[in-house]
Amino acid sequence: MTNRLLLNKGDVLSMMLKNDKIKIGRNDPCPCGSGKKYKRCCLNAKNPKPVNLEKLYQQKYDIRLKHPKDVEGIRTAGRLVIETLDLMEENIKEGITTDELNTIAHEFAIKNNAIPAPLNYRGFPKSICTSVNEVICHGIPENRALKDGDIINVDITHIYGGYYADASKMYFVGTPGPEAKKIVSVAAESLKAAMKMLVPGNTIGDIGWAIQKYAEGEKCSIVREFVGHGVGFDFHEAPHVPHYGKKGDGIVLIPGMVITVEPMINLGKADLFVADDNWTAITCDRKLSAQFEQTYLITEDGFESLTPYDL
Length: 311
Ligand code: MF3
Ligand code: CO
Ligand code: CO
Fold this sequence. Notes:
This protein is an alpha+beta fold.
């Protein structure tokens, strides 16, 4: 690994290299974007070409940075996602079934020329995910009525004009008990802790570290089997965004990255199993689980939520 690169002052990458946050190996793709190996291109060149971060991230990590027109598309899809989540809030009450919520969300998407991404995604049979109480995520809407005291996560991903936006939030049905209040609060604060890390120059590991420090400090546990992800051109893109980790580990955040952060926090143990339907993930100890998710753009000086709502 070496740091020999020609960089413009002020370039995010120069900071990354100075802090040793990004390492280019001799056999890695050359950061100039030529597609050649670094050792066969700029490593020993007298006049190394400038770094092309977009190509570097594509070749090294399979990460597709988003241009302003892409961001605009994702933002528009995100607005429809938020409107759908608001519609869920209006409808969630004792007695409604998760399948009825699915129908409402599906029809709203279609009416607005959006496609619900989950429908038929790897065989998923419905348009949204509805995860109640001990269900961690990927709950399939069904003919089961919500009851007083339940907590429910609704996770919505719409495709609009070819662009994906992905967000979810928690709702109380009727009056929440103390455990429901606790886990929903810890899940929301976990996402807020993550948001503080969304600055170029920080790493993917910093995001997980912040969540872990907070959530485990609250004596809750973090699900490891499901992670946040790149999003926008597709439902799930590189990179993985784990909700646990070490400070400074992993890929450096740079402007133009669009990722989800979606920590799943359990009141009891982290262990889960997947039901016979091959989707529904449930806590082994049957204790409550909660999750909030948004889609974030990394900007020059921080981040913008492309699916903004108050936490
Ligand atoms: N929306 C989920 C996520 O946050 C993925 C759901 S996949 C589905 O990544 F098939 F269950 F919809
Ligand atoms: Co997601
Ligand atoms: Co989601």
